[in-house]
Amino acid sequence: MALGGGVIGDMAGFAAASFLRGIPFIQVPTTLLAQVDSSVGGKTGINLAQGKNLVGAFYQPAHVMIDVATLSTLAEREFLGGLAEIVKYGVVLDRELFLFLEEHVEPILRRDQSVLTKLISRCCSIKAEVVARDERESDIRAVLNYGHTLGHAVETLTGYQQYTHGEAVAIGMVAAASFSELCGFASQDDTARIRNLIQRLNLPSVLPVFTAAEYMSALFRDKKVRDGGITFVCNRGIGDFSFAKVVDLHPLLTSCGIGE
Ligand SMILES: NC(=O)c1ccc[n+]([C@@H]2O[C@H](COP(=O)([O-])OP(=O)(O)OC[C@H]3O[C@@H](n4cnc5c(N)ncnc54)[C@H](O)[C@@H]3O)[C@@H](O)[C@H]2O)c1
Ligand SMILES: [Zn+2]
Which ligand sits nearest to residue 145's alpha carbon? Predict the structure, then answer.
């Protein structure tokens, strides 16, 4: 039984996948991020000194058990970081969820248990549905990386010190929204609504100041680079998505206010 946040879930899941070539295990996630993201979907693993998630296995838990009451003791930044992943599901996969978030900011921020239960169960269903269609991320599962491409660059450039993962993803989503607008997938109003929701949830929304060259080198170090290009997840309006293969990232960075 993996009782704890995403680190415990990933580690215990990997141990369960390896011991005797696999024993059943149960996820009991206690952080918001683990409840809406890492405990569902079967990605398990550990980090090596050489890099994140270098060793691991796809191994599904027999069961995921979530008690939202555990969230009452979670640190505020950890809680807000989990909200960023919830916003992600709304922006690219579920318009109704996005509208629900817009209308419930206040009860969400005071951790109203019935609102959180609704949100968490919706996110688990969405993730389970995506993973059932594409467990090993050969195509559609990549939609869950929305906001993560630039988010990872932000984490790398700031040495994993300044932002939590969820905060970096929030910044990455606002950038992805601007880029989607630039590509013609979304309107100015969509971008404004996404930025506005993220700000109301007390999450950061502006890319930290680094040069375009620094962003490019961080982006191209990402393992998802193929044939010199990056597959970027865009929002199509709000609630749907599109993949865009991006080779030249300057227009994207310029649209987010990053200069040479
Ligand atoms: N497997 C996947 O699909 C997947 C997806 C996303 C992230 N991850 C991984 O998940 C990890 C991040 O997970 P996380 O955000 O849960 O971080 P975490 O596991 O480090 O937990 C964050 C902190 O909260 C504490 N904590 C946990 N539950 C608590 C509670 N109920 N009350 C008070 N404190 C509590 C923990 O002790 C820890 O200090 C990363 O290692 C990331 O790589 C995996
Ligand atoms: Zn994430």
Answer: 2
Domain containing 26 equals: 2-70
Residues 124 and 185 both lie in one domain? yes
Contact 185, 242 (CB under 8 A): yes
pTM above 0.90, yes or no: yes
* 41 and 83 share one domain: no
Cβ 30 under 6 angstroms from ligand 1: yes
Q: Which mutation among 14, 33, 113, 167 tests ligand 1's pocket best, with the greatest number of atoms within 8 A of CB?
A: 33
Q: Is the C-beta atom of 3 inside 6 A of ligand 1?
A: no
Q: Based on the domain organization, do 127 and 61 belong to the same domain?
A: no
Q: pLDDT (tens digit, 9 = 90+) per residue, 24-41?
A: 999 999 999 999 999 999
Per-residue pLDDT tens digits for 142-154: 999 999 999 999 9
Which of 46, 75, 56 has its CA nearest to residue 167? 75
Active site residue 224: no
Q: Judge if 129 and 167 occupy the same domain.
A: yes
**Same domain (yes/no): 88, 59:** no
Give the tokens for residue 168: 């970096």
Nearest residue to 155 (alpha-carbon basis) of 84, 92, 238, 93 = 84
Task: Please state the domain count of the chain.
Answer: 2
Which of the following is catalytic: 88, 141, 155, 181? 141
Q: What would the pLDDT profile of 33-63 be if each residue is shown by its tens digit? A: 999 999 999 999 998 888 777 899 999 999 9
Strand, helix or coil for residue 173: helix
